[in-house]
Amino acid sequence: MTNEQAKADLADILDGVQEQMRIIARLQQERAELTGRATVRGKRVTVVVNADNTVIETQFGPNIEDLGYAEIAKAITDAAQQASADVARKTRDLMAPLDNHRARMPKLSDLVEGMPEVRAPEPVPAPTAPPNAKERREFSDGSGMRFTDTETVERDRGGSVTDSSW
Fold first, then answer.
1. Which of 12, 28, 37, 122 is most buried by its number of CB atoms within 10 A?
2. Domains in the chain, please, with CATH?
3. Residues 33, 27: contact at Cβ < 8 Å?
4. pTM (2 decimals)?
């Protein structure tokens, strides 16, 4: 690759980064205005959340008195979870142009020969089960995360710092 070609490639990359920064600034402002809404139990309970999944409004509709306290509590939880899913979907839709722009940008492995592909890990979804539910206890047994793409290596027991030959 010639020096002029490298300069042109770098200029293209910098233009792409500047465009991406403009997109990010616009999307951050638009995201801050998003809300998610869900209504459950025959329009008796409505919850609205903001883009950070903070409940910003809870409304009870007609005939809420027909529900018991436990039913109302469950309805609020269900509505809040559905409202959070709604705002998450809206956020994904909003961020789609940024994802498309990123897909067009060259990867580090495209620019540096032999460089391995580097990707950020996908976040682990948080459980929606109540605090003491069985689903939450599955990982609280100390086993932590489970990896499937690993290799087991037998260790040589000799030569450790506790070896008597020291």
1. 37
2. 9-110 (3.30.1310.10)
3. no
4. 0.65
